[in-house]
């Protein structure tokens, strides 16, 4: 990769002292790097992604909440993903962010992994093509991508210590291609190391990976940073190639690295390289001569053009898994609809660092009612999927916001020194609650004007980092002043304390949560307000009865951040709670039942073909409720294709028998047989295959033509005819028919095309010679033998329409 770093960097490195240079190898707080004011070097700012740009606030500054990784993977549309990247760059600039921590391009090795929803696919080629598009879109807007997590961070179980034991071929054929493409093709500017070990060595200390593969083999000249608290040494990490320890204050680099250089344990040129990488990144994002927006307040820009791109992504990433003809719904023919399920209100999202606070929270039953103005729409929850006391629903709070008061003491005494507003019920402050006010000498009051929509006994509660109280109408309702240790707030949180309070529907109540430090050394302050409405004894039966009485039942089921998040894996493939029973009961009551699945990873669907239709909505972000309603009534077309296989049972997955590992090691014993490669080679029937997705129209494939288009690639051309009455998208997928050590089917190319009703389009799919080859452990490189290869052209890994041959000279 050709460097675009100017010679100004060399002069700055020469002018810095060892201490100044080493200071740049460690963060100062969660999101910033230190400035070197003497030389005019500004502070670099990073922010969590990849499903939006959070900014530096943990209390809920609003940003455009974007679709999750698996939905992006379902688009199979690099051009559209590049547009999404440009939106992310705009969002980052609004927040004054220079580096976006994303995308996540680790392979979906097991669908149980807690962060499956952040990844694009189980396939390395699809992941690579989308990664290149994503990075190109973001960096084209002058914002750096920090691609993650390098490498093999494919599970959350023991993620900080587990060793992923991977053979050379599997590593280079399955788990590294997306990173390689991002470096070589998109020129990604930063890489984040994974928490885990790779073959016994922490990724942040893995010289073969960082210096060997990344820099020497691929030519990477950008910045390598650790995941948060993912650095474990000074000398080993520095020599291996880690440039930056995050977050601050530093434990291993920074001052410790300066001391190691002065002691002769680390050569100064090693430190100089790290500073060059950092300053080069600053130059690429345009701040080396000074940051023009430094100190500016973060913007909350609700831009309709950005939202429109997100809407296109959701429509093209929603997968129609099954349809017996009930969809799209005809507004003129429907007089009553029952919208049922625990996610039939606001669509949920995965938890962890990818969370952002949306500008708007739309309810599915409301958007459906808007699209069907002539129908009566009834909403019933049916069952609940709470893993813990759910958070306060801010749609029931005046203005949808919480007001915050900050006090320069631990007793909420005197007038507040500052105020703020927040748009989420979980608030956290790390280090400082306000500029110059450390969290350990502060206290905070959070206020909400809450109007319950249901009367009766509400469960109210608190979870906090620190001591806390919850008042309702001035009276203490929940006392958490002697907190018991919990798991939230980076491990500093309490267990949830709750109480039952009788509330009247439609009456406004003032809720006040007060929180103050538990001790003088507390670096974290936080509070989450929980509120669970009364549970009716007949919720399940009411939902089934509503379905039976309706023309159409729409059941919105799925998961949420309590079940899918970083830090833990899912226990199994089932939908949480009684959702399976709810679906089966509703389907039995009304054969015209549409199931919408709002989850970030595959789930068991033994009921799938019993329902009239099934839509996989993934985690679509804040535009999701509107787009799903549009898809249901045919205003938009679901054109997604599965980027991961949907197995019938967990025992059918490729990692079963190896995951989650034991004694600190997880063997990647499936080798290159990951996902659909395993299923097709072992002749295991999935619930829905990789690449599957229906449309509101139908397509026929014509005869294939194959020809060389250069020294290293061929082109597969196939006529695709839209034989239906609606315009639609088709994804033409090209698979290599394997033999010997190859998998039975391997995706080697694809293209997405829109074809008008009754029209034909000749779709051209480029297939590189490299895609036809394999990693050779003897030469330590990819090898493609001359000869004739059999290609399978179709609409999924199992729906093969045409077979042809390709000859490599």
Describe this structure in words.
This protein is an alpha/beta fold and 809 residues long. The chain contains 18 helices and 37 strands. The strands form nine sheets. The chain has a six-stranded mixed sheet, with helices on both faces. Strands 13-12-17-22-19-20 form a six-stranded antiparallel sheet, with no helix packed on it. The chain has a five-stranded parallel sheet with strand order 1-2-3-5-8. α1 packs across α11 (268-284). The model is unreliable at 1-6 (pLDDT under 50).
Question: What's the layout of helices and strands?
Answer:
Elements: H1 8-15, H2 18-23, E1 46-48, H3 69-75, H4 78-94, E2 99-101, H5 124-139, E3 144-150, E4 163-165, H6 168-175, H7 177-184, E5 190-193, E6 197-198, E7 201-202, H8 207-217, E8 223-225, H9 235-240, H10 255-262, H11 268-284, H12 304-317, E9 319-323, E10 336-340, H13 364-371, E11 376-380, E12 402-407, E13 418-422, E14 426-430, E15 432-434, E16 437-438, E17 443-450, E18 456-465, E19 467-472, E20 475-480, E21 497-503, E22 509-516, E23 524-532, H14 539-549, E24 552-558, H15 579-589, E25 593-598, E26 613-616, H16 624-633, E27 665-667, H17 676-681, E28 699-701, E29 705-710, E30 713-722, E31 728-737, E32 745-755, E33 760-768, H18 769-772, E34 774-776, E35 781-783, E36 787-794, E37 800-808
Parallel strand pairs: 1-2, 2-3, 3-5, 4-6, 4-27, 5-8, 10-11, 10-24, 24-25, 25-26
Antiparallel strand pairs: 6-7, 9-26, 12-13, 12-17, 14-23, 15-16, 17-22, 18-21, 18-23, 19-20, 19-22, 28-30, 29-30, 30-33, 31-32, 31-36, 34-35, 36-37
